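Hello again, I could really use a second opinion on something today. I've been staring at a protein lately and its backbone has me curious. You're getting the sequence in one-letter code plus the fold written as tokens. I'd be grateful if you could look everything over and explain what you see. No rush at all, and the record is pasted right below:
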Amino acid sequence: LIRIGVVVGVILLGLYFRDFYTQLRIPSRVFLFQELCMIFGLSFVGQGLLSYVHRDWTIPRKIMLGGSALALVCVFGWRLLFDIAARGAVQPRPVLFLGLSPTVLQLAGHFRENPEFGLEPIGYLGSAEGTAAASAGMSRLGSLSDLSAVIEATRPSSVVIGKREDIKPWWTNEFLELRFSGVNAEQAATLYERTFGRVCAAEIWPSKMIFGDTWKTR
């Protein structure tokens, strides 16, 4: 049990640190196979290092080779089946972006590659951004003045503010009405932090860092 537990512990740590528990969808089968081979390879390295410490805790070579090959096939097949089941598990919710920025493009691309988040970008409102929007698959639905008409036509579940400088102060009442009508309104920086689990450096304004109270020591 100790021998098997050491190997299983190394494999589980490898799956954890390679984000197999958070990355539900598989980019490609080749990528999945390469990642699993690297994780199981780490278990062999761990066995080699363990043999220098306590030889009785290592698994015999033939059992290690056969068990690793069988576990690799089982985990690979299970993840493929799980990927098929996860495709239709979450009903996508349409998301409308106000303004286009690098953060918005990154969020839109991430949601398209990872549909398990349940968010589907339908386009953006703002000025034309040329090839940047086209390469990310973002279609321009109009200008910011067309917000009410576009919301009536597309019925998004969320409105994400990509460019805060384009939002006028007197639009506060409109965003409150959107929230009361069931449409969630938030900033791209907030959605980025909730999606990736870290603060977006591109959304930090230098003026707030210099003149704000965030970085002042007490």
Summary: The first helix runs from residue 2 to 17.
